[in-house]
């Protein structure tokens, strides 16, 4: 299964709204992970079982939160579930095959560059 399968909007470790396209214990795992995320802007990844959880604070997400309005500052846990459809749309638009292909190509390019750099270092060491 490719693409985004679970997403949540949180305020710190408090999940305000979430959406998943499959079943799993994503909510309980994300709660544990959110407690570990550093304060301020961050982009971190954690792995659990066969899944990767990518935590991203990004302006695009901030604009999504702006749609929710000031309620995001005061809502209790899961207090914004009516925005689940908005989150589902966000997930779908960011899981398109074009975007996934683009990311895979970028990863391949980085891997190729790293392999070339390693080969150069090994060549220098052999002289």
Write up this protein.
By secondary structure, the protein is α+β, with helices and mostly antiparallel strands. It has two domains: about 5-95, Longin domain (Beta-Lactamase); about 95-125. Helices cover about 50% and strands about 20% of the residues. It has five helices and four strands; from the N terminus they run E-E-H-E-E-H-H-H-H. The chain has a two-stranded antiparallel sheet. Strand 1 and strand 2 form a beta hairpin. It starts with 5 loop residues before the first strand and ends with a helix. The mean pLDDT is about 80.
- Coarse structural class: alpha+beta
Mean of all residue-level pLDDT scores: 79
Q: What series of H and E elements makes up the topology?
A: EEHEEHHHH
**CATH architectural label of the largest domain:** 2-Layer Sandwich
Q: State the CATH class of the largest domain.
A: Alpha Beta
- Largest sheet geometry: 2 strands, antiparallel
What's the quick description here?
By secondary structure, the chain is an alpha+beta fold. It has two domains: 90 residues, Beta-Lactamase, CATH 3.30.450.50; 31 residues. Helices cover 50% and strands 20% of the residues.
Descriptive labels:
127 residues; alpha+beta; Beta-Lactamase; 2 domains; two-stranded antiparallel ribbon; 5 helices; elongated; Longin_dom; Synaptobrevin-like_transport; coiled coil
């Amino acid at each position: 299964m490719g693409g985004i399968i679970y997403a949540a909007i949180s305020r710190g470790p408090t999940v305000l709204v979430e959406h998943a396209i499959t079943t799993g214990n994503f909510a309980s795992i994300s709660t544990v992970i959110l407690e570990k995320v550093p304060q301020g802007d961050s982009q971190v990844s954690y792995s659990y079982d066969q899944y990767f959880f990518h935590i991203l604070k990004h302006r695009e997400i901030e604009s999504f939160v702006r749609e929710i309005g000031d309620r995001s500052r005061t809502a209790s846990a899961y207090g914004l579930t009516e925005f689940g459809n908005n989150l589902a749309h966000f997930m779908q638009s960011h899981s398109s095959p074009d975007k996934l292909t683009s990311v895979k190509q970028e990863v391949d390019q980085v891997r190729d560059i790293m392999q070339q750099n390693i080969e150069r270092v090994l060549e220098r060491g052999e002289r």
